[in-house]
Structure formats: C-alpha cells, structure tokens
C-alpha cells in the first residue's frame, strides 16, 4: 500500500507536477503510444537492437517488463563518461558535460552511434524528469531513500518549471 504522504508533502503532489505540463504531455502522446517494452535491462537493448547491432533474441528479463512510452528506452549511457562514483541509475547526471578529454570522446562516440533522434529524447529535460520519477510511479515510494530522491526530483522540477508549481494543499 502506498503512503498517503511523503514527509511533509502529499504523494499526489509528485503526480500533479508530471501531469500539469500539458505541452509536455501532448508531445509525449504525439511521439506514439505506450508501445515499447521497458525494464531496467531492456532500455539499452531496445536501442542497440534498433540499430541492428543486437540479434532477435527476445527479452532477457521479463521481471518488471511493461509497456511504456518510447522515451523510457532512450536513456543515454552517461555513466560511461561521468566522473567516478556517479550513480548509473540517476538520470539527473545525464546533462553533466565530462571534464576529461577521454570521457568527452566516449560521449561523442555514443552520440555518433545512436544518432540525432535518440539523443534528442535522451537529453530532453522533461524526458529526463520522467525517467527519474518513473521508478516511483511504477514501484511506489518504499523507504526513506525513495522519499528523499522523489523530493529531490520534485524540487528540481519546481525550480525548472515554476509556472507548474503545485501548492501543498492542491489536489488532482
């Protein structure tokens, strides 16, 4: 059962943030239906397979696989060129430009291989927010660490999109 409130904030506040930006939601819908199979392991496999670099072998891990928007499978491999200690599960680091020349070369090679359309989705700020909050929408907020991370994403959203700020007592 989901908690009714995050520490100090209603759970539905996170959902309200994601649903209020109509332009983003409309753009997401125009990009196609929820027709991509997603799991933590299949996101990169989908991209590699679409480039013809991965054989038709099926889904490796059906645990947690579900249909999701296409943008869920367009996550960059930023953990390959971020500084040591970066969290490979935290998409918030995707926009950080590497400081070392070798790491910048990795990023350029990635962009060259995956192409412009993939990169457009991979580095779109709204899609990064969606990918960051996705696990909470799918799995719920299960512990204090999840609550902290969800709050962090919510605060970044409010800072980036103050027009879509949701007041504490607002309901969906």
Brief overview, please?
This protein is mainly α and 172 residues long.
Give your account of this protein's structure.
There is one protein chain. The strands form two sheets. The protein has a two-stranded antiparallel ribbon. The protein has a two-stranded antiparallel ribbon with strand order 3-4. It has one domain (10-73, 81-163). With 172 residues, it is mainly alpha-helical. 47% of the residues lie in helices and 6% in strands.
Characteristics:
mainly alpha; 4 strands; two-stranded antiparallel ribbon; 7 helices; globular; 47% helix
User: Can you tell me the overall shape?
Assistant: globular
Termini distance? 19 Å
Strands in their spatial order, largest beta sheet: 1-2
Total domain count: 1
DSSP strand tally: 4
Largest sheet: 2 strands, antiparallel
Uncertain regions spanning at least 5 consecutive residues: 1-6
Strand content: 5-15%
Gyration radius over CA: 17 Å
Overall mean pLDDT:
70
Helical stretch tally: 7
Element-level helix/strand string? EEHHEHEHHHH
Topology:
Blueprint: E1 5-6, E2 9-10, H1 11-20, H2 22-30, E3 36-38, H3 42-50, E4 66-68, H4 101-114, H5 116-122, H6 125-139, H7 144-160
Helix pairs in contact: 6-7
